[in-house]
Amino acid sequence: MAQSEDMTRCIDLCMSCYRTCLGTAMNHCLETGGKHVEPKHFRLMIACAEMCRTAAHFMLINTPHHRHTCAECAEICSECAEDCERIGGMDECVAMCRSCAQSCRAMAA
Question: Which residues form the signal peptide (predicted)?
Answer without folding.
Answer: none
